[in-house]
What we know:
- By secondary structure, this protein is of the alpha/beta class.
- Helices cover 37% and strands 17% of the residues.
- The protein has helices at 8-28, 44-60, 75-87, 106-111, 124-132, 146-157, 177-184, 203-208, 274-293, and strands at residues 4-5, 34-40, 63-69, 93-96, 166-170, 192-196, 212-215, 233-236, 239-244, 250-254, 266-267.
- Strand 5, helix 7 and strand 6 form a beta-alpha-beta unit.
Amino acid sequence: xxxxxxxxxxxxxxxxxxxxxxxxxxxxxxxxxxxxxxxxxxxxxxxxxxxxxxxxxxxxxxxxxxxxxxxxxxxxxxxxxxxxxxxxxxxxxxxxxxxxxxxxxxxxxxxxxxxxxxxxxxxxxxxxxxxxxxxxxxxxxxxxxxxxxxxxxxxxxxxxxxxxxxxxxxxxxxxxxxxxxxxxxxxxxxxxxxxxxxxxxxxxxxxxxxxxxxxxxxxxxxxxxxxxxxxxxxxxxxxxxxxxxxxxxxxxxxxxxxxxxxxxxxxxxxxxxxxxxxxxxxxxxxxxxxxxxxxxxxxxxx
Length: 302
């Protein structure tokens, strides 16, 4: 592989080191940031994700508040748990781990989250603030969606040019594709973005035009080497289970064919690329919420 590695593990570690100092400053003022999680049921993957998020928080000094309900919990019981996290003063930000059990209206549950405690940055109010915030200097301060923010940070901290570049995003979902386009086109970031998806008829041609490619559609090895402009930056966000290993562990594949590494200028590994950045930005949202609640702006403690 000739592409430079966009190392999400190392970049996330640097972000956590910065967050550790900010948390220490908050604690000196008696403010303890806290991440709350709501886990419904006992899905092994969901439990693993939640455990990892709390581990990340522990590394930087953020407290953990865990709420668990059985898979048989009703819509009302889950809603009540969300209200409890909204009202808990120890919780500066929280997430509802998805998916919720069959029969539960996920959107209705997510809309109950206090936007100021929205650690995922995906509450409709905060997405609306992102739409309004074309200019960061005048934007309403709000948490950003974790994966899109992680993508932008991974590029910026590895000195990949963004301003004036043509970015092709594959995927139109609300967790990555749509909000990522908004982040990349903000004043100060200044990319030109094309959003594509699995049904775009000329997808390969759209990708070939791009200086930066972000694949987040969940189709294993969709992006082929001959789709990619030589020297482009390629970020592999999609993850699909494609079987099991001999030891019984899940075998995963990203959206980008490994041969792309011989053409691209930069390539994020999968795993080890955008995933660690997503988790780091979740912790960042929790810390920033605590800084706001302490009367300061994100990155400062008054």
